[in-house]
Specification:
Layout (H helix, E strand, L loop, with lengths): L1 E6 L4 H4 L3 H12 L11 H10 L2 E7 L10 E8 L1
Antiparallel strand pairs: 1-3, 2-3
Length: about 80
């Protein structure tokens, strides 16, 4: 199963790349109204997959994609 364009928690500040943008992110989080949904680490995805009998492959997005600086893809394979 392919999951694409997952917001990468380790690259959050690549997207919210100014003080103003990051302050907006923090405010929305405090209000429990995320701007872009949940940001994930690969390890979180890997843990969820493993708990359901899948192994994972971390895929970097093609650098030509405008989202590649803050998102990643994952491939789940049944163990």
């Amino acid at each position: 199963i392919f999951f694409g364009s997952i917001p990468d928690k380790s690259k959050l500040k690549n997207f919210y790349d100014t003080d103003k943008k990051y302050a907006f992110f923090l405010e929305r989080e405090r209000e429990s109204r995320p701007h872009m949904g949940r940001w994930w680490t690969f390890e979180e995805i890997e843990h969820l997959a493993s708990a359901h009998g899948f192994k994972t492959k971390h895929l970097h997005q093609d650098s030509l994609l405008y989202t590649s600086h803050y998102r990643f893809d994952v491939l789940f394979e049944k163990c």
